[in-house]
Amino acid sequence: AQKVTQAQTEISVVEKEDVTLDCVYETRDTTYYLFWYKQPPSGELVFLIRRNSFDEQNEISGRYSWNFQKSTSSFNFTITASQVVDSAVYFCALSENFGNEKLTFGTGTRLTIIP
Amino acid sequence: AAGVIQSPRHLIKEKRETATLKCYPIPRHDTVYWYQQGPGQDPQFLISFYEKMQSDKGSIPDRFSAQQFSDYHSELNMSSLELGDSALYFCASSLHGTATAGTYEQYFGPGTRLTVT
Fold it and tell me: Do A93 and A2 meet the contact criterion of CB atoms below 8 Å apart?
């Protein structure tokens, strides 16, 4: 069975600070996919990134960066120079290989950026 | 770019009534997923379809059924509604995964907020 743990329930930081959201996963598959989604107060789920288990290269997209470490089963998300618009609930999710693509979500981290 | 469309956006029903939620996937996406998100909770997978066939099933109550049509849109039918069915229902769509490409990302619609009174 697969499981995703986001130990940080809520985080508050002052605008322009950097913040890292932690994600730890469990799976017995050797091929799997990791995702991050953002859920702003308006309620929609916005796709941020997909990473497969064979690609441990870190990724940067603007102020967002992701650190994938198979050795610790972690897929952490860092926002640099946070902005008020980053306030949202962030979900880490896991899916297995094709044929079993359903997403298993973590419980989410509510991020509040204080102006 | 076109996104996933869900209707209605809000729905209020009484206990024991029925409800039908509709989902129109992103053009060219052939796989549809349904998720239920209770207040303050993470989304939970209900059911998925590929090429009009059910491809996977999660914790979907027997009172719920769903199908995918030839134009790839999907409908979630909910009967004998209970107070506990009040939630945000998301539909997501993606391209179907393959052995070489693996699993694709899912794009979510805005959700249907169902309130059962």
Answer: no
